[in-house]
Amino acid sequence: MRQQRVVIVGAGIAGLLLATRLGERLGKAGRAHISLVDSHFTHVWKPLLHSLAAGTRDVNLQRISLLAHASGHGHVFEPGALVSVDREARRIQLGPLLAPDGRVAVAARELPYDWLVLALGSGIHDFGTPGVQEHAHAIDGQAQAERFNAALRSAILRAALQDTEVRVAIVGAGATGVQLAAELSELMEHASGFGDARMRRRLRLSLYESSPRVLAAFPEAVAMATHHTLTKLGFEVHTGMRVQAVTAGSVQLTDGQLHHADLTVWAAGIKAPDVLAHIPGLTANRAQQLQVLPCLQTTGDERILALGDCASLQLPDSEHALPPTAQVATQQAEHLARHLPALLQGRALPDFRHRDLGTLVSLARYGAYGTLGRAGVLPGHFLAGRVAQLGHAWLYQCHRAGVQGWGRASVVWLAEQLQRLAMPPIRMS
Ligand SMILES: Cc1cc2nc3c(=O)[nH]c(=O)nc-3n(C[C@H](O)[C@H](O)[C@H](O)COP(=O)(O)OP(=O)(O)OC[C@H]3O[C@@H](n4cnc5c(N)ncnc54)[C@H](O)[C@@H]3O)c2cc1C
User: Fold this and answer.
1) Backbone phi, then psi, for 158, in 5-degree steps?
2) Measured in angstroms, how far is the CA atom of residue 122 from the centroid of ligand 1?
3) Looking at residue 196, what is its pLDDT?
4) Please, are residues 93 and 84 in contact by the beta-carbon 8 Å criterion?
5) How much helix, strand and coil, in percent to the nearest 5, is found in the chain?
6) 17 CA distance to ligand 1 centroid (A)?
7) What is the pTM of this model?
C-alpha cells in the first residue's frame, strides 16, 4: 500500500517540532512520508529575533540547518515558498528560491499531499499605513532582523563620527517592541565600552502604542512593571497614540506631531502570509489567519490543518481566539504530533485543549516579568527578577530540546557560554 504523504509548510516553532516528532514516529518506521517545506534553509526560534536585530546575541550557534536536521529525524526538507494550494488535485505549488546573485537556486515545483499542515506563522500588520513598507523595518524573520542590524550599525557609526544621536522609533509596544527596546539599550551600554563612553546617552528611543498601555495582551502587573523599566531606561513611551504615516526620517502621529527618527521599526499588529487568503474554500479572518475547528482541521477542508500564528481558534470555553504565541504554537504541534498518526488510520482527531502556562517578557539585562498561568500552582502569581529571567531562558532550552534532544541542546548552550568568554558581547561587523 502507498505511504500517506503528510506535507507540513512552515519550519517555525510549530512546524519544525511537528515534523521532527512525526518523522521520528512515522517517517523512520516507513509508516508515512513526512515533508517539511520552508522558504528558508535554517530555523531560528522567533523570540530570539530581537537579539539578532540588536546584535546582542550571536545567533549563528542558534540556527538549525533544516536539511541536516531532516536527515536525522525521519523527514524530508523541501526548500521553497508556498504560492498556492490546489485542493481538488491535493497538490501545492512552491515558488522558486533565488540565490543572492539573483539566479534560481531551487526551481518552482509542485508537491502532492494526502494531508496538508499549514504552519506559516505571521508577520506585522501595517493596516495600510503610508510609508511603512518603504521606510520602516520589521523584525519578522532572519533576513529582516539582519537588515535592521546592518542599518543600526551604520547609524551608530555615523552618530559616533558626527557626535550626534541615534534616534529610534518603535511602533507597537507589544512583546516584540518592548523587548527590542531593552536589547537596544543593552547594546549601547556595551558599545560605550569600545571607545565612546557617551554611546549609551546617544540612544534616543521612543515607543508608540495605540492601546492605553504597553503590552496590551499581557496582565496589567506585567505591563506596569515593563512600563516602569522602560521609562527608567530613559525611553519615551507614548501610549494611546497612533502613528498615521512613516517617512524616511520621521513618524507622523494622528494629532499632527512629527517625531524625527533615524530608524523606525514597525512592530504592531499581526497578519498571516497573503497566500492563505487565496486558498479557495478556506475561510480566513481579517488578519488572514485560517479559521480552524477545535481539532485544528480547517473549517473548509478536513485534509488541510493549520496551527500556530497562521490559525485562528476560539475554544468553546473562551471569549477570545487563542493569542499568537510560542506557547500556543508549541502546544498545538504537540497535540498534532500525538494524534495525527491515528488520523492517518481513519480515526477522528480529538479537540485541542490549551493549557495556560502564563506569560513572560524579557527585558535584556534589566529584568523579566511574567505571571503564572491558570494551569499551574499559584495561578496568576506575578513573577519578576531572576526567576522570570531564568524562566524565559528555560522556555528556549525546552524548544531546542524538544526539537534536537537534551544532549545537543546542552552542547549548544555550553558552546554559547564558552563563546561569551572569548568574543565581544555584541556584534561588531
Ligand atoms: C521579535 C519577536 C519576539 C517574540 N517574542 C515572543 C515571546 O517572548 N513569547 C512568545 O510567546 N512569543 C513571542 N513571539 C511570537 C512567537 O515567535 C510566535 O507566536 C511563534 O513563532 C509562532 O510560531 P509558528 O510556528 O506559528 O510560526 P513561526 O515560528 O513564525 O514560523 C513560520 C515559518 O513559516 C515559514 N513561512 C512563512 N511563509 C512561508 C511560505 N509562503 N512558504 C514557506 N514557508 C513559509 C517561515 O519562514 C517560518 O519558518 C515573538 C515574535 C517576534 C517576531
Assistant:
1) -60, -45
2) 6
3) 80
4) yes
5) 35, 25, 40
6) 13
7) 0.95
What's the rounded Cα separation, in Å, for the pair 33 and 81?
Answer: 20
Are 249 and 152 within 8 A, CB to CB?
Answer: no
Q: What is the dihedral of CA 32, 37, 41, 44, to 10 degrees?
A: -90
pLDDT, tens digit, 9 for 90 and up, residues 242-274: 999 999 999 999 999 999 999 999 999 999 999
Q: What is the whole-number distance in angstroms between the Cα of residue 412 and the centre of ligand 1?
A: 21
Q: Please give the pLDDT value at position 53.
A: 95
Q: Side by side, which strands form the sheet with 76-79?
A: 76-79, 32-38, 4-9, 115-118, 301-306, 297-298
d(CA 254, CA 21): 48
Q: How confident is the model at residue 75 (pLDDT cuts 50, 70, 90)?
A: very high
CB of 262 closer than 6 angstroms to any ligand 1 atom: no
Angle between helices 386-404 and 406-422 (to 10 degrees): 130
DSSP notation for 229-290: HHHHTT-EEEES--EEEE-SSEEEETTS-EEE-SEEEE----B--GGGGGSTT--B-TT-PE
Sign, CA torsion 327/186/149/419: negative
Cβ-contact 173, 215 below 8 angstroms:
yes
Three-state SS for 301?
Answer: strand
Residue 218, helix vs strand vs coil: coil
| pLDDT tens sequence across 373-397 | 877 777 888 888 888 888 888 889 9
Grid cell at residue 9 = 509548510
Q: Name the nearest CA neighbour of 22 among 423, 340, 282, 367.
A: 340
Distance in angstroms (rounded) separating the CA atoms of residues 231 and 366: 12
